Amino acid sequence: MAEPVSFPGANFTFRGDGEVVLDLHVFRQPRGPANVSCWRLTPEELAEINRTGCVFLTVMSGSILYPCFVGSESETRAVVADTGPVWDREASDHA
User: What is the tens place of the pLDDT at every residue in 31-88?
Assistant: First the structure.
């Protein structure tokens, strides 16, 4: 299963229970709407995505669907930049 990973520029952590729900490190956009997280996929997940070209997004929000975006770091930075500042990429291994 994909796991959330911290990344250079993450400035907030949503705390999980440590068992079922892991901590989620995010870049919270100052005075903006964006919370950006980074996920590492297993080799099996990457193989399936490469084979099918599909990624599924699940948002556990009940009957409310918030705007979401799935993309690479560079694509996500471009989308977030439309609404405010983005995270510092210093020493990022996700570039």
Answer: 889 999 999 999 999 999 999 999 999 888 889 988 899 999 999 999 999 888 899 8
Which residues lie closer than 8 Å to 90 by C-beta, 6 or more apart?
8, 9
Q: Tokens for 80?
A: 């977030």
Whole-angstrom CA distances from 65 to 57, 58, 79 are: 11, 10, 18
Contacts by 69-72, CB closer than 8 A, 24 or more apart: none
- Distance from C-alpha of 94 to C-alpha of 51, rounded to nearest angstrom: 22
Sign of the dihedral defined by the CA atoms of residues 22, 44, 8, 55, in that order: negative
**DSSP count for the chain of H helices, then E strands:** 2, 4
Determine the structural domain holding residue 25 and report its residue range: 3-81
91 inside domain: no
Name the domain count of the chain: 1
